[in-house]
Specification:
Layout lengths: L2 H29 L4 H23 L8 H18 L6 H14 L3 H15 L4 H26 L2 H18 L19 H5 L4 H13 L2 H13 L4 H20 L1 H5 L4 H21 L3 H9 L1 H18 L6 H31 L3 H9 L1 H5 L6 H5 L1
Helix pairs in contact: 1-5, 1-6, 1-7, 2-4, 2-16, 3-4, 3-5, 3-7, 5-15, 5-16, 6-7, 6-11, 9-15, 9-16, 10-16, 11-14, 11-15, 13-14, 13-15, 13-17
């Protein structure tokens, strides 16, 4: 199987599961007997463990030949952990299994992104075209599992997770050809600490943490806010779907229209879109403006993510790819977003939708951080 097809299938299967897990897992926990306080505790602890798991696992992956076996092992462990929920739904069981799931399941994404980054260099992979299938599967899961849950009960949430992981395991048994190439002269990857000490990496992580973290209030509270403003759950679902469709479009155009842009330019465009989006959402809930704001998800998330991938795959050497992916996934997409999500929960009762304006203020320092090139190579030009 070609690497492009293999990665497209991997992203589709993983994000179908994640499109089930992210919006519906709290509902399944509630139906399994967890009260609101316990659900919040489980989700918060899960976020903390997720960061530790990604750093711990990615910190030990130093070679291209390790990628597929580790992905296969994590897929098996994830399946076993989710299957255990069928029979262990006591408070202790939910706690232990939630920690186990978050320790292994989220680490599959930085591993697949690291493989994609390797193939971008090795075979000029069209990353956007492969990644858009993950976004499409995310929408499909939102719709399909939502209907299954409504008509068949919340156990379909767990069934869907198990089925997606079973298919993911089958995929990892297939070897993409050519396999990810080793680095020249057999050099192993740098440790996470060595990658963190490279010029520009710390600034890159701060930039991406602010850009991606600014989505925390949107992810956690936009549906609740819009519902309180009188919108039906159907309309809210369409709005969320529109945002992901815009993201798909930007990924589809990556090779044709965006390939020549540097990480710095993509991140700057992501900043502009995020600033406009959060200001707009904080100012009004008129439907036409909500639609326009959701279209800006193509930039606030899509361009920002492509900028991160561009920096890791083009502006760092191959020894830094695994460590940089681990740092990006655990800090920018994990820890900072989790902290801001919890902070948003404290601010929302008093500020309501005006919390979006704080998200806009959050991204303003990115303009200063992007004032000079991220990498030494660009600085020298």
């Amino acid at each position: 199987m070609t690497p492009a097809r293999w990665l497209a299938l991997f992203f589709a299967l993983y994000y179908f599961g994640y499109g089930t897990f992210l919006p519906y897992w709290a509902l399944w926990l509630g139906d399994a007997g967890a009260g609101a306080g316990l659900v919040g505790l489980l989700l918060g602890l899960g976020m903390a463990v997720r960061c530790a798991g990604i750093l711990g696992i990615m910190g030990r992956v130093r070679s291209a030949r390790h990628l597929l076996p580790v992905m296969q092992g994590l897929s098996v462990l994830s399946l076993l952990a989710f299957m255990a929920f069928y029979g262990w739904q006591s408070t202790v069981g939910l706690l232990v299994l939630t920690l186990a799931v978050n320790l292994v399941y989220p680490a599959l994404i930085p591993l697949s992104e690291a493989m994609a980054s390797r193939y971008i260099v090795q075979i000029r992979l069209d990353y956007g075209k492969a990644r858009l299938w993950g976004s499409a599967a995310f929408i499909a899961a939102n719709l399909a599992v939502g209907m299954l849950n409504e008509y068949g009960g919340s156990q379909w949430i767990l069934h869907s997770m198990v089925m997606s992981l079973a298919l993911l395991i089958l995929l990892t048994l297939l070897q993409p050809r050519p396999a990810p190439a080793e680095q020249p002269a057999g050099r192993g990857g740098d440790s996470i600490m060595r990658v963190l000490q490279r010029p520009g990496v710390g600034r890159f992580l701060l930039i991406t943490a602010l850009l991606q973290g600014s989505h925390a209030f949107y992810y956690g509270f936009s549906a609740l806010y819009w519902q309180q403003q009188g919108y039906s759950t159907t309309v809210i679902g369409y709005l969320w779907g529109l945002g992901v469709l815009a993201e798909i479009m930007i990924f589809a155009l990556d090779r044709k229209w965006l390939a020549q842009l540097t990480a710095r330019v993509l991140l700057a465009a992501g900043l502009l879109c995020a600033l406009c989006r959060w200001l707009m959402l904080g100012a009004t809930t008129e439907l036409i403006w909500l639609v326009l704001a959701q279209l800006l998800h193509a930039g606030s998330f899509g361009l920002s993510h492509l900028g991160a991938v561009r920096f890791i795959s083009r502006e760092l050497d191959e020894a830094a790819v695994f460590g940089a992916q681990a740092l990006y996934a655990s800090i920018a997409l994990g820890m900072v977003s989790g902290i801001l999500l919890m902070l948003s929960g404290q601010l929302y009762p008093g500020l309501g939708g005006h919390t979006f304006w704080l998200m806009a203020a959050l991204v303003l320092p990115v303009a200063w951080l992007l004032a000079r090139p991220l990498s030494e190579e660009q600085q020298a030009r």
